[in-house]
Design brief:
heterotrimer, A alpha+beta (438), B alpha/beta (307), C alpha/beta (148), A: 438 residues, alpha+beta, 5-stranded mixed beta sheet, 45% helix, C: 148 residues, alpha/beta, 5 helices, binds iron/sulfur cluster, binds FE2/S2 (inorganic) cluster
Chain lengths: 438, 307, 148
């Protein structure tokens, strides 16, 4: 008989994606291996082949229904890069508004529906209550403000993209739909309430951070590399160069998306249908990087908007830069939510947002290789397409947010598992009283 | 107050967009959530597969299955849902017709694995992962060939309004009544019944916002598509690609109908059509390849190879 | 050669393709009729279905026939310009072109389908068309063989 055992968490819940967790423990509860098994794959790279390039932005969003907008946009940018097309400035503003609206709703849903139940009810509450339905029951005001934020973001996406889930208005060379003045006016009247809900969210988040500060600063602290998009050092989710930060906090790369193959390594793990992307010059596993909110906030020198920038400074005072605290992802999410809210307001107030000059009429396909990168809520994502001279898609390479995160997730799970099984940290850490007792 | 209705929501290989669309009923959640008792819902509640396996058969009133089922785990989950739920809903176009991931049936599994794991721009000579992973079936088959469903709710995703209508009816124990019209019925654009002179790709030119896109030469399959979306794309400048599948009875072959319609509109020379309709299978059957006649032929052939 | 492959070839040799032929009432069906009455020989494999006009043919008919195991499908209509409903055949021709591309994309050999124009007096053209399709399909073998 061996003292080995395997713990399988199937499925991993309250995340988007199909994952199972396998933890192998040896004698004395030594953590021998952690696997995050992503157990489904649909082969988008293959079936994009042979499609007309302009159809890719209508197909690729189905990679993820939670962040279809970043996929739509990265896909458009890849086609435009391959064909050498630059859309009119007003179209870019609409796309920026679209991605910020998505950022807002996605961060709201993540914070309130996926993360908050643990903090509100305590991580050991029963599954029947540790969920968003219970938030609604016990904290209706909080739930309503969450729903209103999600609604604001999703409905704004619908105005611009025709559908919030799997938008269809982006087209190589611009947008098929120009925002109407009445629509803009209507949205502007909704901004004050949205901002108020953002402020309430910030307050709630700060309460959570303060009461869980011990968990946040002690559990699953995992130094890794970080990857994120910045525009000359400023946090930007639509466009810019890709920065890589090393675990010490030094910016080691700042490259154009088109050069990604020099820096992106792809490791095919034996236990996951989603591959692991890492910092190629350093190799695997040393070069494991993480993407997503914390990564972006680590690599950026500053946020793009004043309130968000102040929030980032506040966060850094508490956890430093870089922060390797896995739980600080939630905090960074709030910082980004503030930025999205401010951006949305600025863009809606920009007269050019209702310009009708949103589409080129003379786009011509040509042979080429194009890379499109944007930041999805869960991290940087990249589409790379090769076009033939008729504009048919010959080859696709897709590196989505998940790929950039899984190795980091495993690494941070390893840290947490060691703390939990070997150091029995849960007995040492004091958890705050749940905000709501059930 | 009546007892809440027990519900299980499961996902096969999917994008989660159908469930996002359910969440997007927004403030109606405040009405609906208290009426349901969640028994399984991976992205919302922490019940595990074991919990679902442990419930008595037919003990859950309503089940929703999102996505297609290509891995052995997806198939297990689908069958499990069938056992445990009284009413099983095929939720979204992936589940109803195979959906976008059904396009993988253009290629063999080996061809797919090659590009994904063995050789691409960032991978050289990789090995297909196998450890602690479910196997992948040779082709995407329609979920309805694996289990029976009581209700089909198509759409990629079904709109929040449609979901709310369906859920409300179910919770009240009433039949779900849905209008049978196609997308054209909801489209604000004017049709003049004029033949198409030239086929345009969607990025070409600037379309007249008031005229039927198809008549302007942009391929639109609205007339072969169930209009439960109420024409969201066509009223926003974009052509319909048919994501809600064919109108009832939804077993019709959507692509066949769409091309038949299209041919009536564009009686052009064969050479011109062959040159300008670039990707018929990927356009007219984008969401329904696995449930179509051609799809059935393909599935039979791929399955035969592995026998 | 294994016995199994030998048996298969045996089978294939005695096998006769099943062809579904859609003929428009005004030209080709009459042409087929005439072929019969004037004793023009053509293979007995075609089951003829009369439609009012080829413009009436939805691709559903053709694709369903293939899925149900028809080894080949023939469509025979009036010459362009001669359609009794002016342009039904042009509409069918447009559908046909697109369908052929789709069939190929799905991995079905496009030689299993044939479109031809034959007027009421062109019995020979009709018969030759059937013969050509039967020959093509014989080379390809039974469609169901591909599914076993
Ligand atoms: S039907 Fe569409 S939205 Fe639903 S899971 Fe499939 S791809 Fe996603
Ligand atoms: S074909 Fe398309 S654009 Fe034309 S009326 Fe129908 S839905 Fe509208
Ligand atoms: S218009 Fe067509 S593509 Fe758009 S949502 Fe409706 S059915 Fe889907
Ligand atoms: S009547 Fe013969 S093809 Fe139209």
């Amino acid at each position: 008989m061996t003292n080995e055992r395997t713990i399988r968490i199937d499925p991993v819940t309250r995340l988007e994606g199909h994952g199972t967790l396998t933890i192998k423990l040896g004698p004395g509860n030594k953590v021998k291996d952690i696997q995050f098994n992503v157990n489904s794959t649909r082969f988008f790279e293959k079936f994009l082949e042979g499609r007309p390039m302009e159809e890719a932005p209508r197909i690729a969003p189905r990679i993820c229904g939670i962040c279809p907008i970043p996929h739509h946009l990265a896909s458009l940018k890849a086609v435009e890069a391959a064909w050498d097309v630059t859309p009119p400035p007003a179209a870019i503003k609409l796309r920026r508004l679209l991605i910020e609206a998505k950022q807002l709703s996605s961060h709201a849903i993540h914070f309130y529906a996926l993360a908050a139940p643990d903090f509100v009810f305590g991580p050991f509450a029963s599954p029947a209550v540790r969920n968003v339905a219970a938030v609604l029951k016990y904290l209706p005001d909080v739930a309503i403000q969450a729903i209103k934020l999600m609604e604001f973001g999703q409905e704004l996406c619908t105005t611009i993209g025709a559908k919030a889930i799997h938008p269809t208005t982006g087209i190589p060379g611009g947008m098929l739909y120009a925002m109407k003045e009445e629509e803009r006016d209507d949205w502007l009247t909704k901004v004050p309430e949205m901002l108020e809900n953002i402020h309430k969210t910030v307050d709630l988040a700060k309460t959570v951070v303060n009461s869980y500060i011990e968990v946040i600063t002690k559990l699953a602290v995992t130094p890794t590399y970080y990857i994120g998009l910045t525009n000359n050092g400023t946090h930007d989710i639509y466009d810019g160069k890709i920065r890589v930060m090393d675990p010490e906090g030094k910016i080691v790369e700042n490259f154009k998306p088109s050069e990604y193959t020099k820096y992106y390594g792809e490791h095919v793990a034996k236990h996951s249908y989603a591959t692991h992307i890492y910092y190629k010059p350093v190799g695997y596993p040393e070069g494991i990087w993480r993407a997503n909110t914390l990564a972006r906030c680590n690599v950026a020198d500053r946020m793009a908007t004043p309130l968000a920038d102040a929030a980032l400074k506040e966060m850094r005072e508490l956890v430093g830069r870089p922060s390797h605290h896995t739980f600080v992802y939630h905090y960074a999410r709030i910082v980004e939510m503030v930025q999205a809210a401010e951006m949305i307001k600025t863009l809606l107030e920009d007269p050019e947002i209702v310009s009708t000059d949103v589409k080129l009429s003379d786009v011509e396909p040509k042979a080429g290789d194009g890379v499109g990168v944007v930041e999805a809520p869960r991290g940087i994502l990249l589409h790379n397409y090769e076009s033939d001279d008729k504009g048919m898609l010959v080859k696709a390479n897709l590196i989505v947010a998940t790929n950039n995160n899984i190795a980091g997730i495993e690494k941070s799970l390893m840290v947490a598992a060691k703390q939990i099984f070997e150091d029995k940290v849960l007995e040492k850490i004091t958890l705050p009283e749940p905000m709501v007792k059930t | 107050m009546t007892e809440p209705t027990s519900i299980a929501m499961a996902q096969g290989s999917s994008c989660w967009g159908c469930f996002q669309s359910l969440i997007d009923i927004h403030l109606n959640l405040a009405t609906v959530l208290p009426l349901i008792d969640i028994k399984y819902w991976q992205c919302v509640a922490d019940f595990k597969l074991k919990d679902l396996e442990g419930y008595p058969d037919k003990s859950i009133t309503v089940g929703l299955y999102e996505g297609m089922a290509r891995t052995e785990e997806d198939i297990h989950l689908l069958k499990l849902m069938r056992e445990k739920c009284k009413i099983l809903i095929s939720f979204g176009s992936c589940s109803c017709f195979g959906g976008i991931p059904g396009l993988a049936n253009f290629s063999t599994l080996e061809e797919c694995l090659e590009v994904k794991f063995r050789n691409n721009k960032t991978v050289k000579d990789g090995e297909v992962p196998t450890e602690n992973l479910p196997t992948i079936a040779p082709v995407v088959v329609p979920n309805s060939t694996i289990v029976d469903f009581e209700i089909f709710l198509p759409g990629c995703p079904p709109t929040s309004k449609l979901i709310l209508t369906a859920l409300t009816a179910l919770l009240e124990g009433k039949p779900i009544e849905l209008p049978p019209h196609t997308v054209c019925h909801y489209c604000d654009r004017e049709k003049k019944e004029t033949p198409i002179e030239k086929i345009l790709r969607p990025y070409e030119g600037i379309a007249d916002p008031d005229r039927c896109l198809l008549e302007q030469g942009y391929i639109c399959v609205g007339s072969a598509t169930w209009g439960l979306c109420e024409g969201q794309c066509v009223n926003h400048g974009a052509t319909c690609r048919g994501c809600f599948g064919p109108p009832p009875p939804i077993t019709n072959d959507q692509g066949a109908a769409a091309i038949s319609m299209f041919g009536s509109y564009a009686p052009l020379e064969s050479e011109v059509l062959a040159e300008t309709v670039l990707d018929p299978l990927g356009c007219f059957w984008r969401f329904t390849y696995p449930t179509s006649h051609l799809g059935a032929i393909r599935i039979k052939r791929e399955e035969a190879k592995t026998k | 050669m294994t016995t199994k492959t030998a048996a298969k070839i045996d089978n294939t040799e005695s096998w006769e393709p099943r062809i579904v032929a859609f003929c428009c009432n005004w030209c080709s069906y009459a042409g087929a009729d005439l072929a019969g009455t004037s004793r023009i020989q053509y293979p007995p494999n075609a089951r003829i279905l009369r439609v009012n006009c080829t413009g009436r043919i939805s691709l559903e008919f053709i694709l369903a026939a293939l899925e149900m195991g028809a080894d080949g499908v023939l469509v025979s209509g009036c010459h362009p310009g001669d359609c009794h409903y002016t342009s039904g055949n042009l509409k069918l021709r447009a559908r046909w072109t697109i369908m052929k591309k789709a069939i190929e994309q799905a991995g079905v050999d496009p030689r299993r389908v044939r479109l031809q124009w034959a007027s009421a007096s062109e019995a020979q053209i009709f018969a030759d068309g059937v013969r050509t399709l039967v020959k093509q399909v014989k080379e390809l073998g039974p469609i169901m063989e591909e599914w076993k």
